[in-house]
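Sequence in, structure out. First:
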Amino acid sequence: MTERVVNSAQTIKQHLIENCMKPVILNTYKDKGGAAIAAGRITKAIQNEIPQASAQFLIDDNNRSLTGSIQKLRPYIDFGWGFLRSFKRLPYFPAVLKTPTLNKKITSENPDIVHFHWMQGGYFDFSVDSVPHGIPLIWTFHDLWPITGGCAYPGECTGFLNNCGNCPLFLFPRTKDLSYRSFKRKRDFFQSISDIHIVTPSSWLQQKVKQSPLTAHLNTSVIHNGIDTETFKRINKSEARKKLGISDHKNIILFGAIGATTNPKKGYDLLLDAFGKMDYSRNRLIVFGSSRKAENKNPDITYYPIIKNNETLNLLYSAADVMVVPSREEVFGQTVIEAMASGTPVVAFDNGGPADIIKHKVNGYLALPYSTESLQEGIEWILSQDSGELGQKAQFHIENNFHITKTAAKYISLYHSLAQSEI
């Protein structure tokens, strides 16, 4: 099936190049955050197949942003919103800052397809005139922000299934508070833009999109994020540990994410509880991705900062015996495919994106959400298996199903399908 998709994409590729189809792909940041990394990998793979595809960023450190002079106001906007959020550490991003140049900039590229990725940060206000009409729009959701009143992950809150309002994140929630007004603006946008197709990187997020009153009427597809298996590949465990200066006599349990120890959504507290019940003489926990060390003083836990170098990340994944992804909400699971591509099996909760990636007790373990006992059982099950065989199954699964070229092929097929429907 996968070979047919790739072969079909190769035929379509020639058609697109010959007819000079030009997608314009947009993301808020070039390389800041997990969504930007995933979007960047997808964009690069698409550009390898369609060289004329254009990548644009709402915020670019090299001052090539689509927002023009309004970018100069950004430090003041960030300060003001940061001050407001400091009262309750709100994981909240209102869609309030109008970007009058966005439509103009997109149109100037003369695109055949407009492809949105992560559009948060306050620059995209969901006004009807913010995007050109008559051009197919694909929007890859990397979280739930496009369909909520402002949060990226609503947790147990179900307000986004109705109208939002009375937002539990606010100090002084009201029926028609900012979340309600933002939700209404998004409703107007999705009802007025008819030629839009939503892509989600997991079936879990697609289900949320179909449940939303904003997007239930729209066409959706699941296209999993992908990875370059030449960048993340299997390295001999002992050699990887030697290069990193890690002792070879204990099992290495690995956990990492942006905000690993500070973002409750990442589930570090759940992992600590599970690890606390394990034998420290045989196991060591390594945590990477936090901007500051956690207060836990356990000598069997080692903390690394945010790692931006893929070579170092690949070594760290390869050095581990098991990767744990205990997220309470995980749209996809970028670290899941990175670890598995490096030959390290993963334990995650049977919820969200990881459930699309991991085959339970075949190449990893899916624990009961959000049971620390089940999480511990999963870690110990993987440590009890033949690490070489299990790691090889994990690696092959990613190579065969989540290679970035296959992700690009599916997007190219979607571009072609939507462009044809406009003719």
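Second:
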Amino acid sequence: MSTPLHDTPQPETAAPQEPKPSRRGLLIGTAAALVLGGGALAAYELLGSSDDGDSDDGTTEFKAKFAGTGLVTNEYAFRSPNAKDAHDSPDWVVTSGSLFTRNGDGWTGVPDGQSPGASSSQHNGSAVFRLVTKRRDFGDCTVQTQVRLQPPTTTSRTPKQDWDGAHIWLRYHSPDQLYALSFRRRDGVVVIKRKTPDPQGIGAAGEQGDYVTVAEGKAAFPYNEWHTVSASAVNHKEGVRLILSIDGHTVLDTIDKDPLRITGAGGVGLRVDNTDLDFRGFTAVPAAAAL
């Protein structure tokens, strides 16, 4: 069974149009799993950048860097990439919402439900926040970041949902093909989900892909505190091993054996729903060979 999601951004290869007020929640399906454990901001352009370096195995690491306070990029830049007033980032694409930096950290802003303009000074749209790297060469890798979440809110566009919170994206090929590892949801559930295009060309609620649960459990850390989260994806002969850890403790560890498992490299990023999120120290590095 599947439930609709409402976060569909415009395709990156098509001429984007103004997004309709919509959002998607994470779909619950079934799969074999092993569980171990609105405010406005007067923004100015300030790009978040990265430090990239080659690892011993030749894989390029990614280390996000933010400086000062201001707008990094937003969905306006995604929809209007040729606009002179668009705030582009060399590292990030925001397909929904706005990415700010404050005091050297990444930030969603206090989320609201209205689409932002070029500067995100009146509205930020971050009640539906979708952030992914421009790089799409992350294969066997571990993403780690420190996060601080405020309690979830609602807007007229985005009513209360169990999945409100924050999620790490791995192997992002498109808005309809990715892994989502939910590390703090309103309902306290941690989940690993796979999203793949529907073979019939249309998914739940008329969308182009469906989420299916690969693993889930319970783990809820306090709000308004800094916590460290990490997510890994590693190809094995039997499938894709996916691991979610919070503050150094593994909370989910599973192997996705489904024929639709995602084995190819892709982007990494964050999805945030109805939540004010700060993050720092975002890195993507080659996964340990022992995983």
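Remark: The mean pLDDT is 84.
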